[in-house]
Design goal:
Blueprint (H helix, E strand, L loop, with lengths): L12 H15 L4 H11 L1 H4 L5 H8 L6 H4 L3 H10 L4 H7 L4 H13 L26 H14 L3 H22 L1
Helix pairs in contact: 1-2, 6-8, 7-8, 9-10
Amino acid sequence: MTTKKPVKDAEDPAVAYAKKIVRKLQTDALHFDKNFRELLRIKAWDTLGYESFTKLWVDKFSNTIVGNMLMPMIGTIVDEMLKDGTSLDDMDDVLPGYGPEKLKWMKQQLADGVPPDQVSVTPKQSNEPVSLSLYLGKEQYARWTRIAAKLNKPLKNVALDVLNDFFDNLYDLGEQE
């Protein structure tokens, strides 16, 4: 049985909204990422009377959410559970499909300052390429697409060239110091 704090007012619109977000997380896999971020933003566990994020997770999600759905958010989930003081053994019980070694690796990355949304599940071998995501606004995307067309290159290749040049220049600046 999960320990809960008393909810101040069950009729409070914030309580109804928190319940709605929890329900969406349980039923709407397509928008899991968006709904999970909203759950964190509103601190639904507090609103619903749970002592911690982990207590809410165990009560509402540990038996309903499968490991693959968690993948994009697993670093954030582990980070929140660590903030709650949850042990790796307890996390292993409620985060199916990850196991103690992967959880330990994620905990180490978080301790080393890796942002939760950038934590990897397994260590990369030194010869493996690193994956990066680049988010462009509408105007940037349109401009980069025009540039790629003029260069007769795929947008992905133009973005890779830009990033390589940028990091090469940063490296060169560091060498000059």
